[in-house]
Amino acid sequence: MSDLRRPGIAAGAVLLTVAVAGCSGLGRTAVGTVTYETEGKRVVTVSNPGVNGCHRLAPPGAHRVENATLVDMIMYTTPDCKGAQSAYIPTTLFDNIAPDSPPWRSYTFVH
User: Fold this and answer.
1) Judging by beta carbons within 10 Å of its beta carbon (0-12, 13-18, 19+), is residue 65 exposed, middle or buried?
2) 61: left (phi over 0), alpha (psi -120 to 50) or beta
3) CA atoms in the 13 A half-sphere facing the CB of 85
């Protein structure tokens, strides 16, 4: 009886490995929306953005950002998510820039 189970166990292990490998290729997203307002009062909403990498904002940048995702984010005044001027925006909160400050130009997620 144990000889008959071995091929079944091996086949199950192979199927499980294939299933896990297939799902790992899917891009992870920050479930929810990122909404921001530009200097000209234009409102932009991004739905379910990916959690990896740097995300650029539409020119000329944002003066107000709302993080309605399930993941915290970091805003930057540069278009490449680098530099000392940044702001941490926890999930379900928003941020307005201070008067005479440069606009936010990019963001990353904390994951």
Assistant:
1) buried
2) left
3) 13
